[in-house]
Every structure is written in structure tokens, then in C-alpha cells.
Automatic annotation (TrEMBL):
PANTHER family reported in the protein's UniProt record: UPF0750 MEMBRANE PROTEIN YITT, UPF0750 MEMBRANE PROTEIN YITT-RELATED
InterPro entries registered for this protein in UniProt: DUF2179 (IPR019264), N-reg_PII/ATP_PRibTrfase_C (IPR015867), UPF0750_membrane (IPR051461), YitT (IPR003740)
CDD domains associated with the record: YitT_C
Keyword field: Cell membrane, Membrane, Transmembrane, Transmembrane helix
Gene3D superfamilies named in the record: 3.30.70.120
DUF2179 domain mapped to chain residues: 219-273
Membrane topology of the entry: Multi-pass membrane protein
Bilayer-spanning residue ranges: 9-28, 48-68, 80-98, 104-123, 144-165, 171-189
GO CC field: plasma membrane
Location(s) in or outside the cell: Cell membrane
Protein name from the UniProt record: YitT family protein
Pfam families: DUF2179 (PF10035), YitT_membrane (PF02588)
Amino acid sequence: MRLKFIQEIIGVSAGVILTAMGLDMFLIPNKIAAGGVSGIATILHYLINVPVGAAMLVLNVPLFAAAIYRLGLQFGFRSLYGTLTLSLAVDALVPLLPVPTHDLLLACLFGGVLVGLGLGLVFKYNGTTGGTDLLAAILRTYTGVNIGQLLFLVDATVVITAGYVFESAELSMYALITIFVTAWLIDLVQEGFSYTKAFLIISNRPAEISAAIVEGLNRGATAWPARGVYTGVDKEVLLSVVNRSEVSRLKEIIYQVDPHAFVILADVHEVLGEGFKEYK
């Protein structure tokens, strides 16, 4: 338990540093306010010259108070470490990091990549950085609206406000690109690349196909009963998960046994268990 806690702290800390680097090197110097508390803090930084990290911390205080009130102590304090360290890191790293580019397209892309990788790590290791995640969770207790929809509305409001304050529609457009890149990287870090494929196989010869998969690929398969809605015929559906390099071979195995098999092939982002990766 203690080792897992240490791993989570290290993972969240690494994620916080990457996020701060994305903000300090690319987004903040180029006035790209890509939603969230960091976006609001960026706007305030240029309006009243307040440090971005300090502004983020101040903005998160009422959110934490509301979260503790509406959602309980455990939820509020679970986010405390990530929020504090991110606020401190954003301000502490400013004098140490270069600003590699003022090209807005490069800034929004590379900033989105770093922030997405960072937040992905934070979420993967069971942390949060507070901000609009907390706000959306709080609002949901009042409205019941989906958290994803609320986050989108909050981020859109910040982006539109930034475009108005900075008098630049282009900055708002680049901020939207950053939001999409960040969201994609967050999912990628948590789900992983698709290195495996799942086969759903509907055939009149499931037992023979299963045996061929075991013999030919040394892989397993799971069978469950199903019924065709149009034909009313009872059949077995097979599920088999293989590595990308085994896809062509499995297709050959299936269609050598049953040329009329119905096959669905889908991406699988992560497989845990025998023959694949163990959960750690």
C-alpha cells in the first residue's frame, strides 16, 4: 500500500511538472487561454499582472471549499496535492524555462501535448489538479447535467472571454485546438496506444475455430450463446484478443475453417490478464 502511494505521488508530480512546462513554455507567453482555471489565470495575468500560479491557487480556494461542502472531505483533499504543486510549479519554473516559439500554431500544439501528457499522468495516478473538474462536479450536484458537457461549457466560456479580452478571435481558435489536443493526449495516456485487436466471430463452426485459434496462435477464445434476430437461429459468438502482428494470421485461421464466418474487428487500448499485461 505504501509503495503504491509513493508511486502515485511520483506519477502525479511528474504530471504536474509536464503540465507546468506546457503552460510556461508555450501557452502563457503566447496568450493561449485553453480553458479551465489556468486559462482564467492567464487572462488575469495579462490584465492585472498577477503570477499565473498564484492566481490559480486563489481561484481554487473557493472551489475546494464548495467541493468539501457539497462532496465531502475525501473528494476535496484528494485533489489538494496536485492543485498545490501545480500552482507552485507554474510560478517556480518561469525563470528556468525558455520560450521556444511565438508561432501560435506551434505553441498551441506543443503546449497541448505537454499539458495533455501531464494531466494524463495526474489522472492515471489518481490525482487531480482541481480547477474546472471540481467546478463541474459541484455543478452536477445542482443540475444533474453530464460532467463532460459542463466542462465543455466552462472551457468554451473561458476561451470566448480570452478572445474578447485579448481582442483576437485567432487566439480563441488556437485555444480550441489546444483543448482538443490536450483531451486526446489525456485519453491516450490513460488508455494507451492500440496494440491489440479484438475479434468477434459469428460462425456455424465455433468449436473448430476455437480449436484452431488455440493450436495455431496459442491464444484463447471466449464463447457465449447468441441468437440471430433476423434468422432466429441460435449460434455461439467467439471473442478472441490478439496482438496487432497476429491479425492476418487469425483471419486466415477463421476463414480456412469457415469461409462464411461473420467477423468484427475492433481496436483494444489495453488488455490485462493472462497472455498480455499484468495489472500493477
